[in-house]
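1st attempt posting a full record on here, be nice pls
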Amino acid sequence: MTSPILQFLATRRSHPPKLMTGPGPDRHQLTELLTLAARVPDHGKLEPWRFVVLGRQTLDALAPKLHAAVLADGQDQAAADKAASAFASPVIVAVIHSPVDSPKVPEWEQELSSGAVCLGLVNAALASGWGAAWLTGFAALNRDFAQAHLGVAPHERVAGLIHIGTPGPTPPERPRPDIAAKTRFLP
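the predicted structure (as C-alpha cells):
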C-alpha cells in the first residue's frame, strides 16, 4: 500500500477516552472536522443528523447529573462511576440521528448516513492527529437523559458520542476479522 490514505485506513485505531488527555480541538478545528464528517452518503440530501458539541465546562456540569441518572435507573455505584468518568474526555461530539420524513428515503438509509457521520468524524479526527473514539453508553441510550441534557427531540436518537482529545499511548492492536470467513463471492 503506497497511498497514504490506504495506509491510514489499514492502520487506523480508535483511542480509548481513558487514554486521552487535553487539550481537545478548538472551535475552529472542530468546525473543520465536522465539515469533513458531513461528507457522507446521504440519499436525497436529507442531512438526517446534527451535532451537539460538549465542551469541558458542559461535560463537567453533566458528569454528576449522569452519575445521578444512572443510580436513579437502579444501577450500582460502579456503573454510575464508569458512566460519569466517560465525560472526562476533552471534547465530546454527540451525533444526533434526526430522521426526515421522506417518501423516497427509508429511515434505515438515514440511520446508515448518521452512522457514516460518526465514523467520518472519528477518521477525520484521527487523520488530523487527535485521539478519537465512537462510543454510546447510558448518556446516549437513555432517552430521558438524552432529551433533558443533550437536546434530543422525541423523534431523534444519539447515534454516537465521539470523544476527541490529545492521544495518549496507542493501545495495542486488537484481533481483526477473518475476511475469508466473512466473505462470499458470487460469480
